[in-house]
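haha ok so turns out i had the wrong file open the whole time. this is the CORRECT one, sorry everyone. sequence first:
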Amino acid sequence: MHKHLQAAKRRHLDILAAGAIIGLAAVLAGCANPTASSRVYTFDQAQRAQTVTLGYVIGVRPVTIQASQTSGMGVIAGGALGAVTGSAIGGGSGRRITTVGGAVGGAMAGNAIENASTRRQGLEITIRLDSGDVRVITQEADVPISTGQRVQVVTQGGVSRVVGI
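then structure:
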């Protein structure tokens, strides 16, 4: 009976630890907020002179924008949760196998979830500038842009945005 109580207490602590790890991962993931929006500026971009070039949109194509790399928190949190869940199944050497299997499966699932959360709908916008040059700029699809629309291309430090006039 005493061993049963210890096992139950250990499982309870494992669940609490997994909850703490998932909570920490959620907090840290919320800190990383990359954006390709034409409406969002970082503090470093605010109050700086920008170059504006005028033109007309000659093409718009929907695209998906994905972060070039993830934080890795999905793998860590998923692996931890999977290991805790796996350790609650089976006994003896079977428990070790389910713990490892749960960790691997959880890490894979956590990575897939994190990758999906970094995808944004975007537009690849082709613009004929008044100078005759053609530019292609990709940004989040958070403002309506259509073919034939008069736009300004706002550029600062190699970052360009397309904004309707």
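Residues 2-31 form the longest helix (30 residues).
again sry for the mixup
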